[in-house]
Design brief:
This protein is mainly alpha-helical and 516 residues long. 81% of the residues lie in helices and 0% in strands.
Amino acid sequence: MKESISNKTHRLTNGISWSWQHPHIDHRYMVLGAWLCSDIVSLFGSTLSSLAVPWMVLNLTHNTVATGIVSAVQLGMLVVANLLCGPLIDKLGPTRISVTCDCISAAFIALVPVMWFAHLFSIPLLIGVVAVVGTMRGPSNNAKDILSPSIAAFSKQAMERITGLASTTSHLAGTIGSALGGVIVGLIGGPYALAFTSLALLCGAGMIGFIVRPALLADSSIVASLKKTAQADETDDASSAMQSRHMKSPDQPANSRAEQTHSMTLPHQLGLHIRAYIRNIGDGWKVLIAVPVLLGYALIPAVTNMLDVAWTDVLAPAWVLNQHHGSASLGLLFASLSLPALVGSTIATIIAERLPRFPVMVIGYLLVGFPRYLVMALNAPMPVILTVIAIGGFGSGFLNPIFGAVMYERIPVKARGKVISLTSAMIWGLMPLGSLIGGFSSHLLGLNLTLAILGSTYLVMTLLPVFIPALHHIERPERGALVADIAEDAQTATAEVADSRVTNNSVTNNIGTDES
């Protein structure tokens, strides 16, 4: 017999809701803080590894091509994972995906210092490790992003403020990771520095798994939404059973959908899953293509991010090495970009709702791109380079809050997992090519000429939105639409609850598609 709705709700909340009822602690801000801190420690680890790995390869091989190949492998796997992970996140839930992927990444990254200590380290081993890490990083990053609307609804904050806070914590993690990363790599070496990356990923997974997930499951709006979902499930089950009886002959017993699926052969089940997977991805593409603003602001950042990867993963480390500086100088370059970006992002978080989006976006892009490449191509003094990079970093801090808000305002709630994953895949799609371009072109054309060419390309892409009218329409919609969207978020943020518990009765396989 099916479990009653009240029993389901009691079983879902029993043992977890009490921990969020402390009279002196606002659990909304505790959960928001845990989500942000998880981003900080995870991104700190990623920033540290992005500094340690290229520096380690350059010092071992003295070859920018090898450095570009290692970076391209990791980013290539990340792009593939971004393309395919959307339906999986919608089915299993973002918190579950985030925790699992971060733990797997931590385990593989820990292999590098262990193999180095055992004198078994090699570049092919490193390529295998970064391939796995790239595969896990895509779903993990997307899962954390998809949690943004649920966190906004839970903490009762505006979506722009949540995306601004996420951007601020991202820059904070980048600043800390860059500043400390250069020192850590200089003190203990790149391989052992990756142990800190592994530890950071485990800490981030713990915050999501033990704080954010239980709080979202215990939230009253989620429980209310679960009741509605369960009632709909019962109605659907009754309808499905009735249709099944009419389809069967009188002497043949009616089987449930779960029993029919269980009777299928394994290849048949696998084929059904693959077809459903492809259909979900196709639905995501349809939504993305139907919104020109999203499509345009996915293509332009795809090119600029490609150029950024060439700079961070190959050109900047090679420039520092050619100038006979140490890893601390490389960390200083990255920190001079991320610290002002943190300041800019913080200011944007406070005043973003009052700023005109389009001119702020264009100015921010102009500051962060071309000048940085130009001064390094001219071998300007280090203080000049740091100043130019810092100004660009400040401008870049205003970009992510704008892009994040535009994305969440224009993507249908139930398609966010698919569309955000596909948009992210487009933005990241050219990044592996950026690593290869940076490696091969600096090897063939020289470092300075490569910096000049890529900087000029950055300038052209930055100015494109000015001349394309369709990309001007990024201002915020009416407030009523935003309120309705937040209300829908609260109702659709129950996927993990429903998928992990209600479906244990095999009454439906649709309840896990709109999870929190």
